[in-house]
Amino acid sequence: MDFSTFVQVAWNQALYFLKELNQYNLLQRLLVIGIYLLLAKLADLFIDKLLKRLAASTPFATDDKIISILHKPIQGSIILLGLMHALTLPPDLPSPWSTVLPNLIKTLTLILWWGAFIKEIYHLNEINLAEWLEKRNIGKDIFYLVRNISLVLVIFAGILWGLLIWDVNLTPLFASAGIAGITVALAAKDTMANFFGGISVFADRAYKVGDYIILDATERGEVMEVGIRSTKIRTRDDVMITIPNAIMANSKIVNESAPSPGSGSGSMWELPMTAICGWLKRPFWKWPGPTPHWRKNRNRGCGCVPLVSHRSISSSWSGFGTRP
């Protein structure tokens, strides 16, 4: 086949293809898509010229980030809506395009907004919402817990929605997930108990980091960290104890740092106790026991409670005062 024959065959195929497309009102569909492209550009200008300027005039930075994250999804959704409108014009497309193309556009729209929500949740932090969290007495641990759970729920919901768009039968999936969930729950019973115990600890807010607590009248000390699985406490002997949250949730907790009516902020012991602790930490003394600390007991007026136990002092007193 020479070149002229090849060109003639290609031209004939192109004319046939255009003729086939013409029966599906190609020009009308393109006109609809062009109108939606114009609407998307107008929405882009509206967000850039008006909404972003209004957000910049407010003292909050959160609205600027929200508009920045939702800008592209709104513009993309208008374009995808135009494509969907063009596909619904008569006559219907032949199979399988009449099903594949609309489902593909729905999936792209889902991915667009799904990614925007995930990005919005992921970029939330306690610094931007510090004032809001402080007014509602919400700690950063609870904030991060709610944020991570919301992130998992959004990802799970997006996957299920995508499967529903393509008419995937979810019954076998849910059945398999139920069996797998039972297996995991039995195998990780203690881990799940600690997880739900951590949720109950966060919800009750019986203590927070920095509080001094007594656990079942046995262990006592300062709360150093409150995690999802466990709580870390530093005792008066300067020993770090890690207690599972399942135990914390089912134990009697006395919070000695809880504010009480009439407890003053000053103390007659504050200056001398600070001086004594500073003297014990001086480098020319060899103090064999734990590093000395002290704190004000809010529930006993102006009294003070040392964070070094009498046992550690008595056992270490023989070496006290010797020079290194």
UniProtKB/TrEMBL annotation:
- Which parts pass through the membrane? 26-47, 68-88, 100-122, 142-164
Please tell me whether the keyword Transmembrane helix is annotated for this protein.
Answer: yes
Alphabetically sorted, this entry's keywords are: Membrane, Transmembrane, Transmembrane helix
GO terms assigned for molecular function: mechanosensitive monoatomic ion channel activity
Per UniProt, subcellular location reads as: Membrane
Q: Quote the cellular component terms of the Gene Ontology held in the record.
A: membrane
Domain Mechanosensitive ion channel MscS: residue ranges: 190-256
Q: How does it sit in the membrane?
A: Multi-pass membrane protein
Q: Which family does it belong to?
A: Belongs to the MscS (TC 1.A.23) family.
Q: What is this protein called?
A: Mechanosensitive ion channel MscS domain-containing protein
